[in-house]
Design a protein that fits this description.
Shape: elongated
Domain Sigma-54 factor interaction: 272-502
Keywords: ATP-binding, CBS domain, Nucleotide-binding, Oxidoreductase, Transcription, Transcription regulation
Helix content: 40-55%
Domain PAS: 137-175
CATH superfamily of the largest domain: P-loop containing nucleotide triphosphate hydrolases
Radius of gyration: 36 Å
GO molecular function, one term: ATP binding
Strand order of the largest sheet: 7-6-10-9-8
Number of strands: 21
CATH architecture of the largest domain: 3-Layer(aba) Sandwich
Largest sheet: 5 strands, antiparallel
CATH class of the largest domain: Alpha Beta
Strand content: 15-25%
Oligomer: single chain
Structural class: alpha/beta
Domain CBS: 11-67
CATH topology of the largest domain: Rossmann fold
Length: 585
């Protein structure tokens, strides 16, 4: 609930009050002098009751002027508590009291209630104005937009979509999407929870490019949005041409930068899938790093995509026209590490190539060298690596000639290098050479909102590779994936999707296709969650029952006063009395 709705934001904290020992005449004079009709009776800061000018006038005639307020005060009055909503104030004055001590904290009179109503009117006017703008934007958008609920019923439908399908907006609202939109796959997206981006769609004889996006809330699909992006392929080609003009340095021939043994897969930052806050921050820092020549240290668990980040940094840097040389320090035997990195001269050792061989640093000249798993670099090699970084020169094994090299350095590790330095397992001087721009890549379990995007991409790639047609996930599979810990991160996710794709005969991958061990774990987790939730509900219910019984005892069964103390209406109290079988009060 919005803070502006709480009574403590509106109450008058300087409420005028009288004591129970005040004579009736003095109380009546006080009300008249302050032009009020009701005043609270307070003893030692705590509410005792209320008296009205009418009651005072009436009882002065009967009991006399010297009679005390305590004899006529009314003990039934409207109350509220800190945290109560102004929407629940139906009677004024309402007195805001401490639920435990009965201390009077403030009051809501007609003046405060009127001020709140004016505020609400202003808020509703702003919301209405904002909704009007949303409606205008929605309807004037060039793209066709529609939103359906979890049953596939159209809730929003703009004018552009109306023109595409030839159905009036008013006629479409409230109807099933598949009754209005030809060949729609929104019901499929509702079932799978997997977005379908940039998909070809045939509608009313037109070729369109569409997005179909599920809408999630509290780990449940509550609807889906359909967006008509482009009309035909000519518009797409036009956009591509404009994009090429924005970056004249980007040419198709640069997409085939040569690696030592194979063609490099060009990775751009937009190819790193995911819109989660954690991943977006990592990509933002990596883009800044790409604009400099500073050393970058990528950290993160195994399988998070450190090499993808390294390739994206290379492609966005000044070294992008050079080679991207990747070295896995953990995969090279210690005895071969030096020759692999620095190369060797002619006849350097038995079995060596007769013309010698350049090392990885030479191959990365005017490009980027990526030292993956740098934490596994042998300790004796670390000093030699440091010297290359300092001098930008290498000497091949068996040769005394120094060769100048110029390269962009990116390293990566899934180990805690700082701790390794403390333990004497990694050179401190090398560590600070590498630790210039550290970028931590978040594990998959910390960005589960990216799951649908990653799954959709992998399913599309698998369909192209295996030529078995597109397959979709049932949302129960996606729910399991959101509960899985993902120790292998994105690599593990991609492997599981491929396994399910290959082993599933039909076009729908369901919960039944998951391995038995996975299903068992999922069901156990689901059972434990529901069991815990039921236990919590039972505990809260029990506490509420005890609180109601205790309050009724305090007010000697007076249900009106009990309802006021509990901060609920009489109708609500009677319903709870029936539910908890407390009818003996």
């Amino acid at each position: 609930m919005k803070e502006d709705f709480f009574v403590e934001q509106w109450m008058d904290t300087k409420a005028l009050s009288i004591s129970p020992s005040t004579p009736l005449e003095v109380a009546f004079t006080t009300l008249c002098n302050h032009a009020i009709t009701t005043i609270p009776v307070v003893a030692e800061g705590c509410m005792q009751g209320v008296v009205s000018s009418y009651d005072l006038w009436k009882y002065i005639k009967i009991k006399g002027q010297k009679e005390l307020v305590a004899s006529i005060m009314n003990k039934h009055y409207a109350t509220a508590f800190i945290g109560s909503s102004m929407h629940d104030i139906y009677q004024t004055p309402a007195y805001v009291i401490d639920g435990n001590t009965e201390e009077l904290l403030g009051q809501i009179t007609a003046k405060e209630l009127l001020a709140f109503q004016k505020y609400m009117h202003h808020e509703l006017t702003q919301i209405d104005n904002l909704m009007h703008w949303y409606e205008l934007i929605f309807d004037t958008a060039y793209e066709g937009l529609t939103v359906v609920d979890d049953q596939g019923v159209i809730q929003l439908f703009n004018q552009a979509y109306s023109r595409y399908v030839g159905v009036a907006k008013e006629e479409a609202l409230g109807k099933k999407a598949d009754d209005i939109i030809e060949n729609t796959r929104l019901p499929v997206v509702l079932k799978t929870g997997i977005p379908e981006r940039s998909q070809a769609h045939r509608l009313q004889g037109q070729n369109l490019v569409v997005h179909r996006i599920p809408i999630w809330k509290d780990n449940k699909i509550i609807g889906a949005a359909g967006i008509l992006v482009y009309e035909g392929v000519s518009e797409i080609y036009e956009v591509i041409q404009k994009m090429d003009q924005l970056d004249k340095n980007t040419r198709v021939e640069n997409a085939t930068t040569v690696l030592e043994s194979s063609t490099l897969e060009v990775v751009k930052f937009e190819n790193i899938l995911g819109d989660s806050k954690a991943l977006t921050e990592a990509k933002k820092m990596a883009r800044k790093a790409a604009d400099s020549s500073a050393a970058v240290l990528l950290t993160g668990e195994s399988g998070v995509g450190k090499e993808q980040f390294a390739k994206a940094i290379h492609d966005a840097s000044a070294a992008k026209n050079g080679r991207f040389i990747s070295v896995n320090c953990a995969a090279i035997p210690d005895g071969l590490m030096e020759s692999e990195l620095f190369g060797y001269a002619k006849g350097a050792f038995t079995g060596a190539h007769r013309d010698g061989k350049p090392g990885k640093f030479e191959l990365a000249h005017d490009g980027t060298i990526f030292l993956d798993e740098i934490g596994d670099m042998p300790f004796n090699m670390q000093a030699k690596i440091l010297r290359v970084l300092q001098e930008k020169k290498v000497e091949r094994v068996g040769d005394r000639k120094a060769i100048g090299v110029n390269f962009r350095l990116i390293t990566a590790t899934n180990k805690n290098l700082q701790q390794m330095v403390k333990d004497g397992e990694f050179r401190e001087d090398l560590y600070y050479r590498l630790y210039v721009i550290p970028i931590d890549i978040p594990p998959l379990r910390e960005r589960l909102e990216d799951l649908p995007t990653l799954i959709a991409y992998q399913l599309q790639q698998l369909a192209k590779r295996y030529k078995q047609g597109e397959k979709t996930f049932d949302q129960h599979v996606l729910q399991w994936m959101k509960q899985h810990h993902w120790p292998g991160n994105v690599r593990e996710l991609m492997n599981i999707i491929e396994r399910l794709y290959v082993l599933t005969d039909g076009h729908q991958i369901t919960f039944d296709h998951l391995p038995a061990s996975v299903k068992k774990t999922f069901l156990q987790t689901d059972y434990q969650y529901n069991h815990l939730k039921n236990e919590l509900i039972e505990e809260v219910t029990k506490q509420e029952e005890e609180m109601i019984a205790q309050t009724l005892k305090q007010v000697q069964g007076n249900k009106t006063k009990a309802a006021e103390k509990l901060g609920m209406s009489r109708a609500t109290l009677y319903n709870k009395l029936a539910r908890y079988k407390l009818n003996n009060f």
